[in-house]
Design a protein that fits this description.
The complex is a heterodimer of chains A (337) and B (251). Chain A has 337 residues and is mostly helical. The longest helix of chain A has 34 residues. Chain B has 251 residues and is α/β, with parallel strands linked by helices. The chains are: A mainly alpha (337), B alpha/beta (251).
């Protein structure tokens, strides 16, 4: 052993030369992924009942519905997938995302309350409330996680979903008492049907969230190694936790108000990416972005075409696909121990 | 130099640490030994500023750890705790790369990459650098963690029971690595050890902790004595002359 040590030290200089640095951002597979995603996005622009080429006002309709809808798909898909990733890092749990921690339910509760108290409020006010309650709810969940050490990682999303169900039940009760049940159902069912010009623009704010996550990526990864290792390398763990929660709450709040629930998206995308590429966050982020966009777009196209000329909400398709992937991940986890 | 002055920490009503006054000189390997629950790990964790103390001050290389920015401390001292479970799936090289975070904030430069390569080579992980941590054996993984704290390039390296879960061969290798880190890289290594014979053989100094107090602190030869060890561990210990130095026999 000692002999190999000395030879190790001697060869250090030579070995340093040919080594590939970690985390290269732009690669050929990524370019292919980008082309695929752009293809899906373009396809989404041209799928629908209305004949945008034949009809006289085709161009106008294209601008009013198709472009906003597709932009919304891109933004919501990317944001929710990235939020799922950040949340999984911060909780050190593979099975959490905004819909398995109650974050979306909290956003929904905030939205409902503002609709009751201030029915004529602008979209911006509604969003602000949804963001605030989403932040509060996520902090409650994180505080719970830090206080209670859970033996099994599978328990964490179960606790989150239970918390979400309780909050959802409160929302339903309030909605029932105030005759809001129907409009609540419409708000929450994740669907891009109602995404029109003039109503979806706030969604652009989540583009900022996506950029901030890109910038702070390394901090989130280090925080994901645990509080002790994060502190050891001089990172303020609580600050990063707060930043992450804030970003998740803003993105979830906005997406919930504009689009609705997008179940399991933040869960399945980061897991699929990590399965194939490991967890180097910086080089994974573009992949998480692209895959999030692609999955939402595919689900939306399926939802639009499956019972044409009618539509099913994208959340329905996502829930079916997402649940299947979720179960597959659980089984895989059990096999690996 | 690491200096603890009147450091106290009250865990619960039964477990209390201090007041501890201790000076760990620069260079070499200093081992913290003592019975279970004596407070070795707590002391180390406080020196590494992962846990606050109730009273007293700790200075590392003249910096008061309670008053110095955590970011700056990360370039002076690094600490590795016992349990490291990651959900994140990282390769050895990516993990070691995080040791450079205090210097590069995640954007690795050429210097960082060289330092990472050196650390990996130093711990004999060159052929494993592309492997994921969950594919490694316990001993290899432990070496990867140590490579990470060495890559941090701090003068002071604190390790909490790095031999835990290692078999005989890997324990010996780990101690040789740490010994070399102190010798060849000039690091000051402070390490919590369970096995007194590992401490006796590989450490330059031993600091014996008992009931939250430092009861003995000296060179290995000064601590490796019947009466000292018997008192520290509350069990009859006989030190005999082994082929490579004194050996404590306690069964």
């Amino acid at each position: 052993m000692l002999d190999s040590h000395t030879s190790d030290t001697r060869t250090v200089g030579r070995r340093l030369e040919g080594r590939r640095p970690t985390g290269r951002l732009f690669t050929w597979p990524l370019l292919l992924g980008l082309i695929g995603t752009v293809g899906l996005v373009v396809l989404s622009l041209f799928v629908g009942v209305y004949d945008i080429f034949g009809a006289e006002d085709g161009g106008e309709m294209f601008a009013i519905t198709r472009i906003p809808r597709t932009v919304a798909l891109v933004l919501a898909g990317a944001a929710m997938a990235m939020c799922g990733l950040v949340m999984q890092l911060l909780t050190q749990n593979r099975f959490v995302e905004p819909t398995t921690t109650g974050t979306t339910e909290w956003a929904g509760l905030g939205l409902l309350l503002v609709m009751i108290v201030w029915p004529d409020s602008s979209l911006l006010v509604k969003m602000t409330f949804a963001v605030l309650t989403a932040f509060l709810g996520t902090m409650i969940f994180f505080a719970f996680l830090r206080r209670v050490t859970l033996r099994s990682s599978v328990i964490v999303p179960i606790v989150g979903m239970m918390l979400g169900a309780v909050v959802g039940a409160v929302s339903t009760f309030i909605a029932l008492q105030t005759d809001m049940l129907q409009s609540m159902g419409i708000w929450f069912a994740g669907s891009f049907t109602s995404v029109l010009r003039g109503q979806y623009e706030p969604l652009w704010a989540v583009a900022v969230i996506v950029i901030v996550i890109f910038i702070a990526a390394d901090r989130f990864t280090v925080a994901g190694l645990g509080e002790e290792i994060a502190t050891n390398v001089g990172l303020n763990y609580n600050q990063v936790l707060l930043l992450g929660t804030g970003l998740i709450a803003i993105a979830t709040g906005i997406v919930t108000v504009v689009v609705g629930n997008l179940p399991f998206l933040g869960l399945i995308v980061p897991n699929i990416v990590s399965m194939f590429r490991g967890d180097d966050l910086r080089s994974n982020l573009p992949w998480v972005c692209l895959l999030g966009i692609s999955i939402v777009t595919v689900c939306d196209i399926i939802g639009r075409t499956i019972i044409m000329p009618f539509e099913v909400p994208v959340s329905l398709i996502l829930a079916i696909i997402g649940a299947a992937v979720f179960i597959a991940l659980l089984l895989r986890q059990r096999r690996r121990g | 130099m690491i200096t603890l002055s009147a450091v106290t920490k009250n865990y619960s009503s039964e477990v209390a640490i201090g007041p501890v006054d201790l000076t760990i000189p620069n260079g070499g390997v200093t081992a913290l030994v003592g019975p279970n629950g004596a407070g070795k790990s707590t002391l180390l964790t406080m020196i590494g500023r992962l846990m606050g103390m109730d009273e007293g001050t700790i200075e590392i290389a003249g910096y008061d750890i309670a008053k110095t920015n955590s970011k700056d401390l990360a370039k002076i001292v690094s600490i590795l705790r016992q349990e490291n479970h990651f959900v994140t799936r990282l390769t050895v090289r990516q993990l070691v790369g995080f040791g450079r975070f205090p210097h590069s904030k995640g954007r690795l430069t050429r210097v960082d990459e060289d330092m990472i390569s050196q650390s990996i080579d130093f711990l004999g992980l060159t052929d494993l650098e592309g492997r994921y941590l969950d594919e490694l054996s316990g001993g290899q993984r432990q070496r990867a963690y140590v490579a990470m704290v060495l890559a941090q390039d701090t003068d002071y390296v604190l390790l909490d029971e790095p031999l835990n879960n290692l078999d005989m061969r890997h324990s010996v290798q780990m101690m040789q690595h740490l010994h070399r880190a102190a010798r060849e890289l000039g690091r000051t290594v402070v390490i919590v050890l369970h096995d007194i014979n590992f401490a006796g053989h590989y450490a330059d100094r031993i600091c014996a902790v008992k009931d939250g107090q430092v009861v003995q602190h000296g060179t290995s030869d000064e601590i490796m004595r019947d009466e000292v060890l018997s008192h520290v561990f509350d069990t009859p210990v006989k030190v005999i002359a082994g082929p490579h130095g004194p050996l404590a026999v306690y069964y």
